[in-house]
Amino acid sequence: MLDEMRYTQIGQASIHPIHRLSCHCGGVVIELHLPNGVENPRRCNCSICRRRGAICSSVPLADLKILQGQALLTLYQFNTRTAKHYFCKVCGIYTHHQRRSDPGVYAYNVGCLEGVNPFELGEVPISDGVHHVSDRL
Ligand SMILES: [Zn+2]
């Protein structure tokens, strides 16, 4: 089990209870409800996460609202096609995905949070996505 970790401050950045996330070109703007800050940020070694290299955290589905750029978000699915991975079709940046292991939450790209430098998180735990919980008997 990973240790439970919460970040309400990351370097110079305070995480607001309502915090915005945006893609690189600024076309996609998403509002997140983060009353407890950034909870349990992690990296993952699965086939898609190891390629994109993003640090993720999760929120309940109702706590993520797309404010702008719905039409720019492109859906990518693979394997069991359970998880829904979204990225901006203009700049290619991954913003969030609906998780396969817990479809009740969205994982979001911590590096897209406005004002946040994810390198200031220090060491981030790695979750074992190669051996996915949904693939275990
Ligand atoms: Zn973009």
UniProtKB/TrEMBL annotation:
Pfam families in alphabetical order: GFA
Source taxon at top rank: Bacteria
SUPFAM superfamilies (UniProt xref): Mss4-like
PROSITE patterns: CENP_V_GFA
GO molecular function terms listed in the Swiss-Prot or TrEMBL record: carbon-sulfur lyase activity; metal ion binding
Domain annotation CENP-V/GFA: ranges: 19-137
Keywords: Metal-binding, Zinc
InterPro entries in alphabetical order: CENP-V-like, CENP-V/GFA, Mss4-like_sf
Stored PANTHER family: CENP-V_GFA DOMAIN-CONTAINING PROTEIN, CENTROMERE PROTEIN V
Protein name, entry field: CENP-V/GFA domain-containing protein
